[in-house]
Amino acid sequence: MEIRFQNSPKETSQMNTQELRSNFLVQNLLVNDEVKLVYSHYDRVIIGGAKPVTKPLKLENHPELRAEYFLERREIGIINVGGTGQVEADGQTFDLEKLSCVYLGKGTKDVTFKSNSLADPAVFYLLSAPAHQTYPAARMTKDEASPGTMGAQETANQRTIYRYIHLDGLKSCQLVMGLTILNTGSVWNTMPAHTHTRRMEAYFYFDVPEEHRVVHFMGEPQETRHLLVANQEAIISPPWSIHSGCGTASYGFIWGMAGENLVYSDMDAVPISGIR
């Protein structure tokens, strides 16, 4: 499990391209028959990926957690962006088609990831945060995830937002998690932008065509930086940073937050004219 420490706004403003990528871009999350994890010191969130192709994969414990098992003091949200698969948790089996989600609460001891097809394996994106209370394991499909439309074709940001783990959805201690699908011809996400110093956020971009990229904008509103992101790569977004992207083609992304509250709408808006 890779460990990444926090960076201040001033430190970040002085980074070159490679330093920005090393600190905030997460690559190679989806490796065949492996579980990959990155521990961020922003709200101690763990970003991960599991791609079971030829064998089931277990969510193993890691010595850095100083725990008896991975979810002893943690909760986790899991969204499948690949073929149909299963998540098994302490004897319960959750079937997950593409864009279905499962939440597992604090105290879940055994977690296993499986795919139904060798030719079209499941691709599980993971987001885990510390938890102080146990909430029940639960599954939600894309159609059940309170879809809502935003944006307009005229501003190239027409999109559908699906909310899975939030106050009125799957219950959690501090995780908030969902995904956004951009309409064909739309490329901008989360614009106008915002910050929320009470919560960190992570983005995971998926269904980005191989030859295309998303330009992800980050940094303080008056001191922005950018990163070019490929398919199935993630961004760690500090609480003080904006988080917005513009693709060279349409795409989807999973967003997830952890921190002080579960209020999805807790955002400090930044007008487009105020971004530098």
From TrEMBL:
Any one Gene Ontology molecular-function term assigned to this protein's record: 4-deoxy-L-threo-5-hexosulose-uronate ketol-isomerase activity
InterPro entries listed in its UniProt record: KduI, KduI/IolB_isomerase, KduI_N, RmlC-like_jellyroll, RmlC_Cupin_sf
Entry's EC annotation: 5.3.1.17
Pfam families (UniProt xref): KduI
Cofactor binding, per record: Binds 1 zinc ion per subunit.
Binding site for Zn(2+): 194, 196, 201, 243
CDD domains: cupin_KduI_C, cupin_KduI_N
Gene Ontology BP annotations: D-galacturonate catabolic process; D-glucuronate catabolic process; pectin catabolic process
General function of this protein: Catalyzes the isomerization of 5-dehydro-4-deoxy-D-glucuronate to 3-deoxy-D-glycero-2,5-hexodiulosonate.
Family: Belongs to the KduI family.
NCBIfam families: PRK00924.1
Protein name: 4-deoxy-L-threo-5-hexosulose-uronate ketol-isomerase
